[in-house]
Amino acid sequence: MSRKQIELLKLAEQYFFKQNYGLAKAVLQKILQGDLNNSRANELLAYIVGNEGDLQGAIRLLEKACSFSSCNPAAYYELGSIYLSRDEDESAIASFEKATQLGFKTFELHFNYGQALAKLGLFSRAFEQFTQAKNQNQSSPELFLNLARLHEYLNESNNALQCYEKAISLDPRYALAWIGGAQLLKKKGDYSAALSALDKVLSFDAFNSQTLYLKGNLLRSMKRYSEAINVYSRCLEIAPDLPFLFGTYVNTKLLICDWSDYDECLERIKQGVLESKEIISPFPLLAMFDDPKLQRLAANIWVKHESENIEPLQDKESYSHQKKIRVGYFSADFGYHPVAFLIAEIFELHNRESFEIYGFSIGPNTGDPMRKRLESAFDHFIDANNLSDAKIAERAKELEIDIAVDLTGFTQDGRTNIFGLRAAPIQVNFLGYPGTLGASYMDYIIADPILIPDDSLDFYAEKVAYLPDSYQPNDRQRLKVESRFSRAKAELPENGFVFCCFNNNFKITPNQFDLWAEILRQVEGSYLWLLEDSSLASNNLRNEILHRGLDAGRLIFAPRVSPNDHLARMSAADLFLDTAPYNAHTTASDALWVGLPVITRMGKSFASRVAASLLCASGLSELAVETDGAYVHLARDLARDPDKLKGLRNRLLANNENLPLFDSIKFTKNLENLYVQMYERAQSGLPPAQI
């Protein structure tokens, strides 16, 4: 470097450190006109153009500066920081590593290095970098926030809470730390403490829409629905386009049968989905629209939002060395839950000569008898609730699971990103979620010809694997009801026809309630026996029946009881009236098991055809109709014809274990046949196809 260039570089540095960037830039450009390979000039100019917003230009200049052995180690740090801001994490890590090798070991380097490593799931290395950062500076709330999140990833919840608390002690108004702590407390079941943490944020930031949304969700989990709705309403005033807020608000209203502005709300949701807006998650949409095309669009939107940065851990190449097909069932509901009630016996009946069965529990350990039964039902049971999605997918890969079956989907506590990470070469959507997951990573959906007729195939992202009877398994070990439950014991009137529906209240739509009111009107002295999800819902339904000109006493509400007690009391009813467009699932098969006939109005979507599938597999296809009028007439006619109704009941009870719906042995063989076909296609290098 000539003396003149040395003097110019000193001048540029003087301007730079005095923050006179315009003059510094002019001098640096003059230096580079004479010497493009001046490392220091490239470095300083990179800082200036980066501050001006030209990050690509800054990267080009820093890469040039770093290409020389005389490069300042800080240039590698700055280059890594820009890569980190652009989510180019692998490049960031390479630059940070080079900076440390050259002896650059500041707090900022270790902090940013740790962030890049954590983003790529390299948690152990990230923890090392954050620890080194902490050794240099223990007064950074941002550092302790990142440490807290890292402890969460590593399933160290107590350490995570301590780090959140440390971050808050350093900055009492640090909203992210309060929110992170609240979400962890909610996960641990300490709802009261979580609510206090969110309220703390709102005390100094009353218009924080994300905190309001989280508070609404927490209140909803606590079944404080009216308060949740009020919080969502306030949040909508502040941030009307917050992702999925409006759909959650409407769904919460439906949980308590609050149908105010129902048509307007549903129209807004429909238009939002058609415009690819993040307006509603897929699950609540099932009870609003009988439209499989709309449901697939909503699933596509949700998957894009949830899995945007997910990269598969493996390709779809199948394992070839195993004697048995390894099937992994993944569920958040391995305990007292409808899905477990249905499928428990299938796990026990699987042919161990041909299959090795794994259970991955991704939900809380309920500790109930069903949980204990399921733990014994699998060849291998893995409690993965506290593992990250990536760790679970890695574990499945290590175990060489051939077929991964998602039994949860988009229902509560579902973790579909496990499958986005490709837990197995073959991935199957089954039982838990009644519809498409809309994801390219899900290969098959298990159904039957009633659920997905040929003209509906385009509405499913998965290839359809058809079972010959109903898609739904059933457990013959459930309570066998030998005689009808007494009305007195069920707290029902001794006289009068008793219709019932024990579906969750959110499945009841205004149109469905209109049909029920008309049935009650046409069958004098009849009653409708419903499940009481909440007193708010019951009161709203009483008001709705009054508005339709009927006495509120025509509605009777059943409190929630144990599964066996509920199964027994169902037999006291005369006829089960299903909901549409979201049918009864487990509840319908429970009714049929105890000899209670079910009538349903089937539609076009998966969820609206489940009861028809169950009825066909029970030999009662005549109880599945296609119009509102036929539904009302069938209910009325059966109520007026006790002999015909008794005949239906007797057909169910005569030999129900031999009905296709309840033939668990045959079902298991048919299911295994599908698994074999999926496996053989994969072994032959063929893509998934309808089977």
How would you characterize this protein structure?
The mean pLDDT is 94. The strands form two sheets. The protein has a seven-stranded parallel β-sheet with strand order 3-2-1-4-5-6-7, with helices on one face. It contains 30 helices and 13 strands. The protein is 52% helix and 8% strand. Among the domains are: 325-466, 3-Layer(aba) Sandwich (Rossmann fold); 498-616 and 620-658, 3-Layer(aba) Sandwich (Rossmann fold). Helix 9 packs parallel to helix 11. It is an alpha/beta fold and 691 residues long.
Short description:
The protein is 52% helix and 8% strand.
Average residue pLDDT: 94
CATH class of one domain reads: Alpha Beta
Low-confidence stretches: none
What would you give as the CATH superfamily of one domain? Glycogen Phosphorylase B
**Structural class of the helices, strands and pairings?**
alpha/beta
Q: Separation of termini?
A: 73 Å
Number of helical runs?
30
Question: What distinguishing features does this structure have?
Answer:
Rossmann fold, about 10% strand, alpha/beta, 7-stranded parallel β-sheet, about 700 residues, 6-stranded parallel β-sheet
